[in-house]
Amino acid sequence: MKLTKTILAIETSCDETGAALVRGRFRPGEGDVPESVCVASQVVHSQIASHQPFGGVVPEVAARDHLAKIAEVAEEALAALAPTEHLDAVAVTMGPGLIGALLVGILYARGFSIGRGIPLLAVNHVDAHLAPALLFENYSVGSQVLVKSLQYPALALTVSGGHCHLSRLEGPHARVLLGRTVDDAAGEAFDKVAKVLGLVYPGGPQVERLAAQVSGARFSFPCTLTDKSNRLGFSFSGLKTAVLFAVKDLLGLKQIPKSLSGASLPEDVKAELAWAFQEAALGQLRDRLVNALADSPIPIRSVAVAGGVAANSRFRAMMAELGLPVRFAPLALCSDNAAMIGLQALLEPREGLRMQPFTRYAMDMR
Ligand code: KG4
Ligand code: ZN
Q: N or C: which end of the chain has fewer CB within 10 A?
Protein backbone atom coordinates (compact mmCIF):
# COMPACT_ATOMS: atom_id res chain seq x y z
CA MET A 1 0.00 0.00 0.00
CA LYS A 2 1.24 3.48 -0.83
CA LEU A 3 1.19 6.28 1.67
CA THR A 4 0.45 9.86 0.62
CA LYS A 5 1.36 12.95 2.63
CA THR A 6 -0.12 16.35 1.82
CA ILE A 7 1.52 19.45 3.27
CA LEU A 8 0.70 23.15 3.18
CA ALA A 9 3.99 25.08 3.11
CA ILE A 10 4.58 28.72 4.06
CA GLU A 11 7.63 30.88 3.25
CA THR A 12 8.14 34.45 4.48
CA SER A 13 11.86 34.70 5.23
CA CYS A 14 12.63 37.71 3.04
CA ASP A 15 10.71 39.53 0.29
CA GLU A 16 8.43 36.86 -1.17
CA THR A 17 5.21 35.75 0.53
CA GLY A 18 4.88 32.14 -0.56
CA ALA A 19 2.46 29.28 0.02
CA ALA A 20 2.31 25.91 -1.71
CA LEU A 21 0.49 22.62 -1.44
CA VAL A 22 2.75 19.62 -1.98
CA ARG A 23 2.08 15.88 -1.98
CA GLY A 24 4.52 13.05 -1.56
CA ARG A 25 3.88 9.36 -2.21
CA PHE A 26 5.92 6.97 -0.11
CA ARG A 27 6.34 3.22 -0.32
CA PRO A 28 6.21 1.92 3.27
CA GLY A 29 9.46 0.28 4.31
CA GLU A 30 11.50 1.89 1.54
CA GLY A 31 13.11 4.74 3.47
CA ASP A 32 12.17 8.31 3.97
CA VAL A 33 12.49 9.60 0.42
CA PRO A 34 9.20 9.87 -1.45
CA GLU A 35 8.74 7.77 -4.56
CA SER A 36 6.95 10.64 -6.31
CA VAL A 37 6.01 14.21 -5.47
CA CYS A 38 3.53 16.79 -6.71
CA VAL A 39 3.60 20.56 -6.36
CA ALA A 40 -0.18 20.89 -6.45
CA SER A 41 -0.12 24.67 -6.13
CA GLN A 42 2.57 27.29 -5.83
CA VAL A 43 1.68 30.90 -5.02
CA VAL A 44 4.21 33.72 -4.66
CA HIS A 45 3.45 37.32 -3.92
CA SER A 46 6.62 39.24 -4.74
CA GLN A 47 7.40 42.40 -2.80
CA ILE A 48 9.95 43.66 -5.32
CA ALA A 49 7.88 46.76 -6.19
CA SER A 50 7.68 47.76 -2.50
CA HIS A 51 11.45 47.52 -2.01
CA GLN A 52 12.63 48.89 -5.38
CA PRO A 53 12.48 52.58 -4.34
CA PHE A 54 14.97 51.76 -1.55
CA GLY A 55 17.33 49.75 -3.77
CA GLY A 56 17.13 46.70 -1.48
CA VAL A 57 14.92 44.86 1.01
CA VAL A 58 13.69 46.97 3.97
CA PRO A 59 12.92 44.53 6.84
CA GLU A 60 10.02 46.53 8.32
CA VAL A 61 8.39 46.97 4.91
CA ALA A 62 8.83 43.23 4.26
CA ALA A 63 7.16 42.20 7.55
CA ARG A 64 4.17 44.51 7.02
CA ASP A 65 3.72 43.35 3.42
CA HIS A 66 3.79 39.67 4.52
CA LEU A 67 1.18 40.45 7.15
CA ALA A 68 -1.10 42.03 4.55
CA LYS A 69 -0.77 39.11 2.09
CA ILE A 70 -0.17 35.89 4.01
CA ALA A 71 -3.80 34.80 4.50
CA GLU A 72 -4.74 35.49 0.87
CA VAL A 73 -1.66 33.68 -0.49
CA ALA A 74 -2.20 30.65 1.79
CA GLU A 75 -5.88 30.41 0.87
CA GLU A 76 -5.05 30.50 -2.83
CA ALA A 77 -2.56 27.64 -2.37
CA LEU A 78 -5.08 25.66 -0.31
CA ALA A 79 -7.64 25.83 -3.12
CA ALA A 80 -5.73 22.92 -4.73
CA LEU A 81 -6.70 20.61 -1.85
CA ALA A 82 -9.15 18.03 -3.22
CA PRO A 83 -12.55 17.94 -1.42
CA THR A 84 -11.84 14.57 0.18
CA GLU A 85 -8.13 15.12 0.70
CA HIS A 86 -6.67 15.20 4.20
CA LEU A 87 -4.05 17.81 5.09
CA ASP A 88 -1.30 16.04 7.07
CA ALA A 89 0.82 18.98 8.24
CA VAL A 90 1.77 22.61 7.79
CA ALA A 91 5.45 23.37 7.15
CA VAL A 92 7.02 26.76 7.66
CA THR A 93 10.40 28.42 7.17
CA MET A 94 11.91 28.75 10.63
CA GLY A 95 15.01 30.62 9.36
CA PRO A 96 17.43 31.92 8.47
CA GLY A 97 15.82 35.18 7.45
CA LEU A 98 14.56 38.57 8.58
CA ILE A 99 13.09 38.17 12.04
CA GLY A 100 9.93 40.25 11.49
CA ALA A 101 9.28 38.56 8.16
CA LEU A 102 9.85 35.06 9.59
CA LEU A 103 7.51 35.69 12.52
CA VAL A 104 4.59 36.48 10.21
CA GLY A 105 4.86 33.08 8.50
CA ILE A 106 5.60 31.18 11.71
CA LEU A 107 2.67 32.65 13.62
CA TYR A 108 0.31 32.13 10.70
CA ALA A 109 1.42 28.49 10.36
CA ARG A 110 1.23 27.94 14.12
CA GLY A 111 -2.31 29.26 14.25
CA PHE A 112 -3.21 27.13 11.25
CA SER A 113 -1.76 23.99 12.85
CA ILE A 114 -3.63 24.58 16.12
CA GLY A 115 -6.87 25.39 14.32
CA ARG A 116 -6.71 22.26 12.17
CA GLY A 117 -5.14 20.03 14.79
CA ILE A 118 -2.25 19.06 12.48
CA PRO A 119 1.51 19.05 13.13
CA LEU A 120 3.67 22.08 12.48
CA LEU A 121 6.99 21.29 10.74
CA ALA A 122 9.93 23.69 11.03
CA VAL A 123 12.08 23.91 7.91
CA ASN A 124 15.56 25.34 7.40
CA HIS A 125 15.39 27.71 4.42
CA VAL A 126 18.94 27.01 3.18
CA ASP A 127 18.41 23.24 3.25
CA ALA A 128 15.09 23.74 1.46
CA HIS A 129 16.63 25.61 -1.49
CA LEU A 130 18.29 22.32 -2.46
CA ALA A 131 15.23 20.08 -2.08
CA PRO A 132 13.92 20.43 -5.67
CA ALA A 133 17.38 19.62 -7.08
CA LEU A 134 17.60 16.51 -4.87
CA LEU A 135 14.25 15.22 -6.10
CA PHE A 136 13.79 16.00 -9.78
CA GLU A 137 15.15 17.73 -12.87
CA ASN A 138 11.87 19.27 -13.87
CA TYR A 139 8.28 19.52 -12.80
CA SER A 140 5.05 21.30 -13.62
CA VAL A 141 2.46 22.53 -11.16
CA GLY A 142 -0.25 19.90 -10.66
CA SER A 143 1.72 16.93 -12.07
CA GLN A 144 2.94 13.95 -10.06
CA VAL A 145 6.69 13.68 -10.74
CA LEU A 146 8.64 10.47 -10.25
CA VAL A 147 11.56 11.16 -7.92
CA LYS A 148 14.91 10.86 -9.69
CA SER A 149 17.46 10.80 -6.91
CA LEU A 150 20.69 12.72 -7.15
CA GLN A 151 23.79 10.55 -7.43
CA TYR A 152 25.48 10.54 -4.01
CA PRO A 153 27.99 11.51 -2.69
CA ALA A 154 27.34 14.93 -4.17
CA LEU A 155 28.51 18.49 -3.71
CA ALA A 156 25.82 21.10 -3.14
CA LEU A 157 26.05 24.83 -3.67
CA THR A 158 23.34 27.17 -2.41
CA VAL A 159 23.85 30.64 -3.84
CA SER A 160 21.29 33.33 -3.21
CA GLY A 161 20.86 36.87 -1.95
CA GLY A 162 21.46 35.90 1.66
CA HIS A 163 23.42 32.66 1.49
CA CYS A 164 26.47 31.13 -0.10
CA HIS A 165 27.03 27.60 1.20
CA LEU A 166 29.00 24.67 -0.10
CA SER A 167 28.27 21.26 1.38
CA ARG A 168 28.88 17.57 0.76
CA LEU A 169 25.81 15.37 0.66
CA GLU A 170 26.28 11.73 1.42
CA GLY A 171 22.55 11.18 1.03
CA PRO A 172 19.43 13.33 1.18
CA HIS A 173 19.67 13.52 4.98
CA ALA A 174 23.46 13.60 5.47
CA ARG A 175 25.07 17.00 4.94
CA VAL A 176 28.51 18.24 5.83
CA LEU A 177 29.04 22.01 5.57
CA LEU A 178 32.35 22.57 3.74
CA GLY A 179 32.42 26.34 3.27
CA ARG A 180 30.42 29.52 3.44
CA THR A 181 30.90 33.18 2.69
CA VAL A 182 33.01 35.21 5.08
CA ASP A 183 31.20 38.43 4.12
CA ASP A 184 28.57 39.00 1.40
CA ALA A 185 26.52 36.36 -0.38
CA ALA A 186 26.95 36.04 -4.15
CA GLY A 187 23.46 37.42 -4.94
CA GLU A 188 24.05 40.32 -2.58
CA ALA A 189 27.18 41.22 -4.58
CA PHE A 190 25.14 41.14 -7.81
CA ASP A 191 22.57 43.45 -6.17
CA LYS A 192 25.19 45.92 -4.91
CA VAL A 193 27.04 46.06 -8.24
CA ALA A 194 23.71 46.55 -10.04
CA LYS A 195 22.95 49.53 -7.80
CA VAL A 196 26.31 51.14 -8.64
CA LEU A 197 25.58 50.64 -12.35
CA GLY A 198 22.21 52.38 -11.93
CA LEU A 199 20.14 49.19 -12.32
CA VAL A 200 17.01 48.41 -10.31
CA TYR A 201 16.65 45.82 -7.52
CA PRO A 202 16.96 42.80 -7.66
CA GLY A 203 20.20 43.25 -9.55
CA GLY A 204 21.14 39.69 -10.53
CA PRO A 205 18.96 39.36 -13.63
CA GLN A 206 19.79 42.96 -14.69
CA VAL A 207 23.55 42.42 -14.41
CA GLU A 208 23.20 39.17 -16.37
CA ARG A 209 21.25 40.96 -19.13
CA LEU A 210 23.77 43.81 -19.32
CA ALA A 211 26.78 41.46 -19.33
CA ALA A 212 25.24 39.44 -22.19
CA GLN A 213 25.64 42.50 -24.47
CA VAL A 214 29.42 41.97 -24.64
CA SER A 215 31.75 38.99 -24.84
CA GLY A 216 34.76 40.48 -23.09
CA ALA A 217 35.91 43.53 -21.18
CA ARG A 218 38.80 45.94 -20.78
CA PHE A 219 38.43 45.42 -17.01
CA SER A 220 39.38 42.45 -14.93
CA PHE A 221 38.41 41.97 -11.31
CA PRO A 222 39.98 39.66 -8.71
CA CYS A 223 38.05 36.55 -7.79
CA THR A 224 40.25 35.38 -4.95
CA LEU A 225 39.83 35.00 -1.24
CA THR A 226 42.87 36.62 0.38
CA ASP A 227 43.10 33.84 2.97
CA LYS A 228 44.58 31.05 0.81
CA SER A 229 44.02 28.46 3.53
CA ASN A 230 40.27 28.93 3.06
CA ARG A 231 39.94 26.87 -0.14
CA LEU A 232 36.24 26.23 0.27
CA GLY A 233 35.00 29.57 1.62
CA PHE A 234 33.68 32.53 -0.34
CA SER A 235 34.22 36.27 -0.24
CA PHE A 236 32.56 38.91 -2.41
CA SER A 237 33.08 42.19 -0.60
CA GLY A 238 36.55 42.79 -2.12
CA LEU A 239 35.16 42.18 -5.59
CA LYS A 240 32.32 44.63 -4.97
CA THR A 241 34.85 47.25 -3.77
CA ALA A 242 36.98 46.68 -6.89
CA VAL A 243 33.94 47.53 -9.03
CA LEU A 244 33.29 50.64 -6.92
CA PHE A 245 36.88 51.81 -7.47
CA ALA A 246 36.67 51.18 -11.22
CA VAL A 247 33.47 53.25 -11.44
CA LYS A 248 35.04 56.03 -9.35
CA ASP A 249 38.06 56.15 -11.68
CA LEU A 250 35.88 56.10 -14.80
CA LEU A 251 33.92 59.06 -13.44
CA GLY A 252 37.19 60.89 -12.72
CA LEU A 253 36.41 61.21 -8.99
CA LYS A 254 39.12 61.49 -6.34
CA GLN A 255 37.11 59.68 -3.66
CA ILE A 256 34.16 57.33 -3.50
CA PRO A 257 31.13 59.46 -2.53
CA LYS A 258 28.47 58.16 -0.11
CA SER A 259 26.20 57.07 -2.92
CA LEU A 260 28.26 56.39 -6.00
CA SER A 261 26.36 55.99 -9.26
CA GLY A 262 27.82 54.96 -12.57
CA ALA A 263 24.40 55.32 -14.26
CA SER A 264 25.74 58.09 -16.49
CA LEU A 265 28.60 55.96 -17.89
CA PRO A 266 28.31 54.89 -21.56
CA GLU A 267 26.21 51.75 -22.07
CA ASP A 268 29.14 49.70 -23.47
CA VAL A 269 31.33 50.58 -20.47
CA LYS A 270 28.59 49.52 -18.04
CA ALA A 271 28.13 46.28 -19.97
CA GLU A 272 31.86 45.54 -19.74
CA LEU A 273 31.88 46.28 -16.01
CA ALA A 274 28.92 43.91 -15.58
CA TRP A 275 30.64 41.23 -17.67
CA ALA A 276 33.94 41.45 -15.77
CA PHE A 277 32.16 41.38 -12.39
CA GLN A 278 29.98 38.42 -13.40
CA GLU A 279 32.98 36.42 -14.66
CA ALA A 280 34.83 37.04 -11.38
CA ALA A 281 31.84 36.27 -9.13
CA LEU A 282 30.76 33.13 -10.98
CA GLY A 283 34.40 32.11 -11.49
CA GLN A 284 34.85 32.10 -7.73
CA LEU A 285 31.84 29.79 -7.30
CA ARG A 286 33.24 27.42 -9.96
CA ASP A 287 36.77 27.49 -8.46
CA ARG A 288 35.46 26.56 -4.98
CA LEU A 289 33.62 23.61 -6.47
CA VAL A 290 36.78 22.54 -8.29
CA ASN A 291 38.72 22.79 -4.99
CA ALA A 292 36.05 20.79 -3.17
CA LEU A 293 36.17 18.07 -5.83
CA ALA A 294 39.97 17.90 -5.57
CA ASP A 295 39.97 17.90 -1.72
CA SER A 296 37.12 15.44 -1.21
CA PRO A 297 38.09 12.34 0.78
CA ILE A 298 35.47 10.38 -1.18
CA PRO A 299 34.80 10.40 -4.93
CA ILE A 300 32.01 12.85 -5.76
CA ARG A 301 29.43 11.65 -8.30
CA SER A 302 27.35 14.76 -8.96
CA VAL A 303 26.74 18.41 -8.11
CA ALA A 304 23.50 20.17 -7.08
CA VAL A 305 23.08 23.93 -7.40
CA ALA A 306 20.21 26.05 -6.04
CA GLY A 307 19.24 29.57 -4.93
CA GLY A 308 18.49 32.75 -6.87
CA VAL A 309 21.94 32.94 -8.50
CA ALA A 310 21.43 29.42 -9.91
CA ALA A 311 19.02 31.06 -12.39
CA ASN A 312 21.99 32.75 -14.10
CA SER A 313 22.48 31.22 -17.56
CA ARG A 314 26.21 32.06 -17.74
CA PHE A 315 26.62 30.19 -14.46
CA ARG A 316 24.69 27.22 -15.84
CA ALA A 317 27.00 27.15 -18.86
CA MET A 318 30.12 27.35 -16.65
CA MET A 319 28.91 24.45 -14.51
CA ALA A 320 28.50 22.27 -17.57
CA GLU A 321 32.32 22.42 -17.92
CA LEU A 322 32.86 20.72 -14.53
CA GLY A 323 32.81 17.30 -16.15
CA LEU A 324 30.28 15.87 -13.66
CA PRO A 325 26.48 15.62 -13.81
CA VAL A 326 25.13 18.94 -12.47
CA ARG A 327 21.53 19.16 -11.26
CA PHE A 328 20.07 22.68 -11.04
CA ALA A 329 16.90 23.56 -9.20
CA PRO A 330 14.26 24.26 -11.90
CA LEU A 331 14.19 27.97 -12.80
CA ALA A 332 10.81 28.58 -11.15
CA LEU A 333 12.16 27.16 -7.87
CA CYS A 334 15.53 28.97 -7.76
CA SER A 335 14.33 32.13 -6.03
CA ASP A 336 12.44 31.99 -2.74
CA ASN A 337 9.20 30.01 -2.88
CA ALA A 338 7.11 27.81 -0.62
CA ALA A 339 7.17 24.70 -2.83
CA MET A 340 10.79 24.10 -1.81
CA ILE A 341 9.76 24.38 1.87
CA GLY A 342 7.07 21.73 1.36
CA LEU A 343 9.44 19.46 -0.60
CA GLN A 344 12.04 19.73 2.16
CA ALA A 345 9.36 18.86 4.74
CA LEU A 346 8.55 15.74 2.67
CA LEU A 347 12.24 14.83 2.66
CA GLU A 348 12.73 15.21 6.40
CA PRO A 349 11.68 12.21 8.43
CA ARG A 350 11.19 14.22 11.62
CA GLU A 351 8.20 16.06 12.96
CA GLY A 352 7.98 18.71 15.64
CA LEU A 353 8.92 22.30 16.13
CA ARG A 354 11.53 24.34 17.89
CA MET A 355 9.57 27.53 18.52
CA GLN A 356 12.64 29.67 18.12
CA PRO A 357 12.97 31.47 14.82
CA PHE A 358 16.59 32.05 13.93
CA THR A 359 18.11 34.67 11.72
CA ARG A 360 21.54 33.13 11.06
CA TYR A 361 22.27 29.94 9.15
CA ALA A 362 22.32 26.89 11.40
CA MET A 363 22.92 23.36 10.13
CA ASP A 364 21.74 21.92 13.43
CA MET A 365 18.25 23.43 13.31
CA ARG A 366 16.44 20.15 13.72
O1 KG4 B 1 17.03 32.67 -3.39
P2 KG4 B 1 16.67 34.11 -3.43
O3 KG4 B 1 15.32 34.48 -3.97
O4 KG4 B 1 16.72 34.78 -2.03
C5 KG4 B 1 17.48 34.45 -0.92
O6 KG4 B 1 17.24 33.41 -0.29
O7 KG4 B 1 18.38 35.26 -0.64
O8 KG4 B 1 17.81 34.85 -4.26
C9 KG4 B 1 17.70 36.18 -4.64
C10 KG4 B 1 19.05 36.62 -5.15
C11 KG4 B 1 19.14 38.12 -5.42
O12 KG4 B 1 20.33 38.61 -4.85
C13 KG4 B 1 19.17 38.19 -6.94
O14 KG4 B 1 19.87 39.31 -7.44
C15 KG4 B 1 19.88 36.89 -7.29
O16 KG4 B 1 19.36 35.95 -6.39
N17 KG4 B 1 19.59 36.48 -8.67
C18 KG4 B 1 20.53 36.38 -9.64
C19 KG4 B 1 19.84 36.05 -10.83
N20 KG4 B 1 18.51 35.95 -10.54
C21 KG4 B 1 18.38 36.22 -9.21
N22 KG4 B 1 21.86 36.55 -9.59
C23 KG4 B 1 22.55 36.39 -10.76
N24 KG4 B 1 21.95 36.09 -11.94
C25 KG4 B 1 20.61 35.91 -12.03
N26 KG4 B 1 20.04 35.62 -13.18
ZN1 ZN C 1 16.40 31.93 -0.24
A: N
